[in-house]
Amino acid sequence: MALKCVDTIESEFLVKTPSSTLKRMLEKKIPDIRLHIERKVSKEFGDWLVEIRAVSRNLGQLAIGQASSARQREEDLRIKQRQAEEQSRLSLRDCVYALEEEDDDGLSGGGVGDDGFNGGGGFDLTPLYRAYHIHQTLGLEDRFKQYYFENRKLQLTSDFQVSSMTPFLESHQTFFAQIAGFFIVEDRIVRTGGGLVSKLEVENLWETAVSKMCAVLEDQFSRMQTANHLLLIKDYVSLLGVTLRRYGYLVDPLLDVLSKHRDKYHELLLSDCRKQIAEALSADKFDQMLMKKEYEYSMNVLSFQIQTSDIIPAFPYVAPFSSTVPDCCRIVRSFIEDSVSFMSYGGQLDFFDVVKKYLDRLLSEDLDGALLKLISTSIHGVSQAMQVAANMVVMERACDFFFRHAAQLSGVPLRMVERGRRQFPLCKARDAAEDTLSGLLKQKVDGFLMLIENVNWVADEPLPNGNEYVNEVIIYLETLVSTAQQILPPQVLKRVLQDVLSHISEKIVGALLGDTVKRFTVQAIMSIDVDIRLLESFADNQAPLLSDEEANQLKTAVAESRQLVNLLLSNHPENFLNPVIRERSYNTLDHRKVVLISEKLRDPSERLFGTFGSRGGRQNPKKKSLDTLIKRLKDVS
């Protein structure tokens, strides 16, 4: 337009004015015209500079938004593929077809212009190029280049300013979008501006921008104390990196800053989870969870793969666990997903080991520690202890799900997780729960075992139905089993019962060993034999719940008292001295206990041996054998 004015004026002067006069007038007017053109073009360029800042911000937001949408499509596609693999509904060919079908719909970026925007990029460079062309015509090309570069550099410097009045969490998107838009514009100008700005100049500006953004991130991350805030900013910065990498800009320093703060992020995330776990545990009433609808079952059971059967139960359904289990599962699953989100798109392709490391910490330190604290401070009754023990069994299945879930989200084959499987990370809490349950049951049983004091240790006749204490114990244990089998798996129930029966056996041996019992008769030992048979019969009766092999293992819990009674009732107790027989029949007995207890069976009148009593001055063979045993064992001692 300005050039057209120059041509028109020149034509009029040529027609109406003599050449000499024209020359003088041109020499006088042209500088003014040039100045007028410069001013007019400079004003248009100045308006463009103002406008391009707003355009750049919108351009950056649009570009990063497109990168976010593309990422979401990729994630949705991965989820669909993962679901298909889990359900085994798609063959390999179906999976491939599904991927190709998604790509054919344009989800992989098809139809997008070279700047990443349809319709030429959405910003107008005509005012800039017109100003540049006019300045070239006027012989002011270098001055305009310098003027343009200095103004754009000042704009970029202004873009680096972080407002102290607005939290960075609220302003970070605008901050990064403005810078992204700036360099998208500069990339276009480098490619289409005819030398207005060089690639080297833009690269130098980008190095300055990267350095500044890294400094801002370092400063802001150092102040943040909320994991979610770091994650939100990290996600946006990674999208910024994806966006500008498409234009050839090196973004590795930005990604390095993100990686540098992964430890802080996970520490904050672990801290958040610790608080949530503490709240979940404190809210638990130690009651079995009631689910009235199928969606509740799906949300609390199927979503964590803690079901024991593929058959959907009838509703209402009473789960064997309390609310702690799904509440903690949700916390851990959220931790995994947040951890993977932070590690994804951060420049590190293989990050499963990092996610797994922090997941191990969450489970083996934080969750295990919280459960240990709960067990040691809040469990006061058998029913509560039983519920916590049942919860731990379900959590063992949940932990398998956690590591599979982390592997799937990290893109790691499940077979690698199976190969690298470690021990149950909540083993301390599991053992403590079972120990607490066993301890409380032992306390209950001890109340009945106090009736051992009523045993007639010098009885002349054995009791055919056993002593009172054992009958009370059997009634309690049978009642316990009828309740426990509803929530405790057989293996846990077996371990707990085995511990309790072993405790009862120790108490029986302890009674014979203690100072209260000065002497006892064979008939009293026969009554104890009946007591032990009743306990063994109880163990045998658990075969429907356990198995014949496990029921036999349960019987071994009373092995010490059984072997002691067998020895005391044996016609040849000196066989205990035979290493082969001792290993086969008396391997749980301590020889010092045998000496102390055996001495109480001795009686100078030999009344205690009943049918073994001596006649005609002949010593009872059993008494002689027992004396030999005692003497030899004392020699060994």
Walk me through this protein's architecture.
With 637 residues, the protein is mainly alpha-helical. The protein folds into 3 domains: 24-81 and 122-249, no CATH class; 262-431, Exocyst complex subunit Sec15 C-terminal domain, N-terminal subdomain (Tetracycline Repressor, domain 2); 455-636. Helices cover 71% and strands 1% of the residues. The protein is built from 24 helices and 2 strands. It has helices spanning 2-16, 19-87, 92-107, 126-137, 141-159, 168-192, 199-223, 227-245, 252-260, 262-283, 294-300, 324-343, 352-378, 382-410, 414-419, 427-449, 468-484, 490-513, 522-540, 548-555, 559-569, 579-585, 591-600, 621-636; strands at residues 290-291, 317-318. The model is unreliable at 88-114, 116-121 and 604-617 (pLDDT under 50). This is Exocyst complex component. It comes from Malus baccata (Siberian crab apple). Its main location: cytoplasm. Keywords: Cytoplasm, Exocytosis, Transport.
Put the structure in a nutshell.
By secondary structure, the protein is an all-alpha fold. It has helices at 2-16, 19-87, 92-107, 126-137, 141-159, 168-192, 199-223, 227-245, 252-260, 262-283, 294-300, 324-343, 352-378, 382-410, 414-419, 427-449, 468-484, 490-513, 522-540, 548-555, 559-569, 579-585, 591-600, 621-636, and strands at 290-291, 317-318.
Order of helices and strands: HHHHHHHHHHEHEHHHHHHHHHHHHH
Q: What is the number of beta strands? A: 2
Spatial gap, N to C terminus: 120 Å
* Tally of helical segments: 24
Domain module tally: 3
Radius of gyration: 43 Å
Query: What average pLDDT do the residues reach?
Result: 82
Structural class by SSE content: mainly alpha
Strand content: under 5%
Low-confidence stretches: 88-114, 116-121, 604-617
How are strands sequenced across the largest beta sheet?
Answer: 1-2
Q: What kind of sheet is the major sheet? A: 2 strands, antiparallel
